[in-house]
Amino acid sequence: KAGVTQTPRYLIKTRGQQVTLSCSPISGHRSVSWYQQTPGQGLQFLFEYFSETQRNKGNFPGRFSGRQFSNSRSEMNVSTLELGDSALYLCASSLGEGSGQPQHFGDGTRLSIL
Amino acid sequence: SQQGEEDPQALSIQEGENATMNCSYKTSINNLQWYRQNSGRGLVHLILIRSNEREKHSGRLRVTLDTSKKSSSLLITASRAADTASYFCATDRGFQKLVFGTGTRLLVSP
Predict the structure, then answer these.
(1) What pLDDT is stored for residue A96 in this prediction?
(2) Which residue, among B52, B53, B34, B54, has the nearest Cα to B44 in the 3D structure?
(3) Residues B88-108: pLDDT tens digits?
């Protein structure tokens, strides 16, 4: 079974631009979560989607948004990019929603803002 | 914000030795999970321990959970060079997805 696939792996943008990251979960997994990883703040939860609905949201500004499609694939969008948005963005999928679900992570998209 | 603090921040050992990493957290939890991250890669799920469990084993891994002290430990026995990675604990409180600790960087030298 193929793992979680994130595209692109690397991305370079400039301040003020916007970016869209893509995540394809493991086949059959319906929950997709997004995390931001930086050296200073560590791993922080962005949001979770299940059945095309946002179930949970972390403490990030409205510039960060996402969506999930009927095939469970998910996209994350960041608008008006800032230097501090440089990070590794990780997507994780799980079979269902709720507590006690091991997360299966992709290798991430490394976003660099110039 | 990060729920967990991990100790030590870095650990360097020889192959064959045991490695112990500790995680402390702040609030009540439903379960606690441990993950491994190799440099530049995503996280790999290692083990999940529920709040009503005290100890769990998986191969060379042993995890303990003490909810009264709000702490957990991960023991890797007979370490191998391939175990070199960062290890994170993550707490699950049920209403928000995983809240990760700060991580322990483990270096296992041949």
Answers:
(1) 80
(2) B34
(3) 999 987 765 788 999 999 999
Contact A86, A112 (CB under 8 A): yes
Q: Which residue of B5, B34, B37, B43 is the best one to mutate when testing the A interface, meaning the one whose CB has the most A CBs within 10 A?
A: B43
Q: Is B44 on the interface with A (CB under 8 A)?
A: yes
Judged by CB atoms closer than 8 Å, whether chains meet at A104 and B98 is answered as no
SS3 category, A103? coil
Q: What are phi and psi of A89, to 5 degrees?
A: -105, 120
B97·A56 Cβ contact <8 A: yes
Average of per-residue pLDDT values in chain A: 94
pLDDT digits (tens, 9 = 90+) for A42-75: 999 999 999 999 988 999 999 999 999 999 999 9
Q: Please list every residue in chain B whose beta carbon sits closer than 8 Å to the beta carbon of residue A50.
A: none
CA A92-B70-B39 angle, to 5 degrees, is 35
User: Which chain B residue's Cα is nearest to A89?
Assistant: B42
Confidence category of residue B3, pLDDT binned at 50, 70, 90: low
Q: Which residue of A has its CA nearest to B104?
A: A42
